[in-house]
Amino acid sequence: MSGPVPAAAVAPQPDAATGAAVCAALRREVERLGLSIGNEPDWSLLSFEEKTDPFSQEVSLIGTWRGSARYGTVTLFPDGRVFAEYQVLLPHPDKPERYVESVQVWGKPDTLRGEAVIAAYMT
Question: According to the lineage, what is the superkingdom (predicted)?
């Protein structure tokens, strides 16, 4: 017997202002290196699910970007904090032996900080 999906089974969608802040902060971290990933990431392409922390029992909202050239995730914690990571996969502009694997941002949507994850090419 099938019927409508119960409301509790559908993950809530975060507000657009949070999405705009997270995506802008991720792009800003890429631009800080002198690189560009265009209009990526696109908040509307995230798929969300709720996940319960096994220790604290707090329920966070986890969003995933997949199915395009880059992969990324965003975690929205119950207290309003955010952690997001998005693939860049471009050569480092100043270090030919390295590339920018991804960028990360964290904090509250109005005060996000971040950094790039730099990796060495395998030889």
Answer: Bacteria
